[in-house]
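Backbones bend. We report:
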Amino acid sequence: MLIWISLAVLIITGLGFYAWHLHQKVKTRIAEQEASRKEVEAFVKERSDNITNSIVVIAGAMLEEQMSLSECCIRLSSLLNQLGPVGQQDRFLSLHKAAEELGHIPILDEWKQLKFKQQMTYLKEMEIIEDKYGDFILETCRTIHLNGLNLPKQEEKDGGVGFYQP
C-alpha cells in the first residue's frame, strides 16, 4: 500500500512540475508576443509619423508654389492612401478625385518621352483639372500645413473647408 501511495505522490509531483514547466513556457511566449507587438506598434507609429510629416511638407511646398497642383494631388493622395482610414476622410476627397483624374497622365521618364504636342494636350487637361479642384486643394493644403492631419475645432462642427461636393 505504501508503494502505491509513494507512486501516486511521485506521479502527482511529476505532473505538477510538468504543469509548472508548461506554465513557464506560456508565460515566456506571452512576454515575447507582447514585446513583438510593441515593436510592431512602434514601427507603425514611426512610419505613420514619417508619412504625416511628408504630407505636411508637401502641403507647405504647394502653398509656396514649389510644385504644381497636379503634382501635389498625386503625391498627397498616394501618401494619404497609405494612412488608411485617416487618409480617406471626406475632407481629402478633392485630392483623391483630382489624383484619380490625373492618374492616366505619364510622369517622369514617360513624360520626357512624349512629343511636345502630346505634352501640351496633357498640360491643358491638367489645367482643367486644377481649375476644377484648385480652390479645394489649396484650402486643404492650408489646413494641413497649419494643423497637420488634425481637424481644427470649427471644421469638426461644420464639415470643414476644402470639401469637394460633386
Q: What stands out?
A: The two ends are 90 Å apart (CA to CA). The first helix runs from residue 2 to 63.
